[in-house]
């Protein structure tokens, strides 16, 4: 009886999924199908939907049978029909959207809403309860699922992995996260590989390898796979029920252990035809079991009588008259297949409901004396270590094998998460532990996905990585930003902790990596996105960094990007000054200004720790050579302060912007990234024509002939010293000083000799770097 009800539930799901794609009216087929019953524009994806509904139905069964806390994560990109249909039958949709009632009228509204303006999309979007990822970009279902189960020991995440999705790089690496999962502290992910054979227009790789090779592949990943071949539905239900029971009982056995170990986790490979239960052929072209089933199997049923007839036969094959009563309500047998703990009502999928604010230590305990040079990120590592101490179960640090390099190694006091084999040598520094709080894996996609899954289910974290490799996750972060942006408009979705990204080992200090690691472009990919979501910070020193991170860890529904270098740099502000500076987002530095309370002749501005260092040094040179020059020094911490307040919540009003940058004086702006980004943010400002930005450039022409020094590429592809790189990009102190003298009219009589002297200094600096491999010591004082 149980499997019979489950089969009826699945048939109803398939009918609803098909109806959402095709039907505008006559939703229960109470009369013959007519052209006017078909939607004018057919959108949606059928191919993976029956498989998703099938797995969903069997997940319902194990939830009820074993009383599980379960999260259902849909990987196939356009699988929404196969997810929405069971949500409707579970009566979860009507809880959040009262117009989707469990009757004929509610069903009609559901059909008309799907893939329709202001309706439900063809992905598992934030509007759908129970969902934690959209799937519009493939590859993240496993990393999201594993992130969700970290520190959630009672949670089972059923991750539906599409076989097309399995070909992506992010998905391929994320199979390995099982080596970080501690069964004592963490929950379990049950991957279900939906092997339906085709992508949009091609066969999938995993569907075309021998069964033995397929099984051995996943055994090599550390799983115990069980293959379920589903063709005839009744037999498929029996096989799938046995496989799910086997998997859950294996998981329960794993969870019964009280000491951490690395288990071999179960997984299921479900082999179904693509577009299962659709017509096998239409006009001698394959549909079921072929790639044509991926989207709308045939799209001209409204105008083609023969295709209309085939569509009606297809829809009637589900026997809707036996699935729904006269009022359109699903029959009792179907409703009995719904568990008490409904997938769509899982609190883990609405993580803000579970979120507990972090206990944060006072940052004053970690601040440093600005009189001394320091590694900007080292005090932050000490701070994060204490965050871990105070929040042992809901805060983690993630990174692609760069946490030590980024000077955050104090967090290793709480270990690196690891349940795979260990060696004696591993204890030398930063011990590996099943209870470690830092997860490192050399896949930026995977650690980003783990962090997203972790915060979406109610916890907190930070990802640290090299700035040059952040573009690898650019598209992924953009997808997550879209999720947050939409979620903020959905009243029942509670705010989740912000996605915090720390980008260090920055473009200006690639001392031993060179040109390959020089890329500040990640920030360009996000500055035009969702003003309510994105923040970009450039702390100039360690104390400002501490306060910004302290703020970011308390924020919600944001993407906080923090760019700061890890090397030793000058320090400028004590902790109180740093707080004030960060809270304003920018400020006038009187200690770096000449006649700071007077109308300036020039504004020297900086954004980023290394450009700030060079800009401050330029002021010193200018004051020495031009003591009557009135200089105002402005440092920018929050990049979005530069935008008008109508465009971003953190933007300055025009009056405030003018008070900092004047309305008619030259502004020399030394920026961390590509210079045109500053122009994009400020083009509407009154003084924009006088704004001259220096930053990272790919085309480095400095007007100095260096061929006598080297036959190489003058720093483009090889190793560069910090000053050499600064000069090649003209963000150095000498270039800034030259720019000021040439742009301030009252200094025109000094320009010739001054420019000549500054270029001589650049030549000396470059010669020293090329001859000695390091910068002149006096340039770094």
UniProtKB/TrEMBL annotation:
Transmembrane segments: none annotated. The keyword Transmembrane helix does not apply. InterPro entries: THDP-binding, Transketo_C/PFOR_II, Xul5P/Fru6P_PKetolase, Xul5P/Fru6P_PKetolase_C, Xul5P/Fru6P_PKetolase_CS, Xul5P/Fru6P_PKetolase_N, Xul5P/Fru6P_PKetolase_ThDP_BS. Keywords: Lyase, Thiamine pyrophosphate. Gene3D superfamilies: 3.40.50.920, 3.40.50.970. Residues 566-780 form the Xylulose 5-phosphate/Fructose 6-phosphate phosphoketolase C-terminal domain. One of its GO terms (molecular function) is aldehyde-lyase activity. GO terms for biological process: carbohydrate metabolic process. Signal peptide: none annotated. Belongs to the XFP family. This is Phosphoketolase.
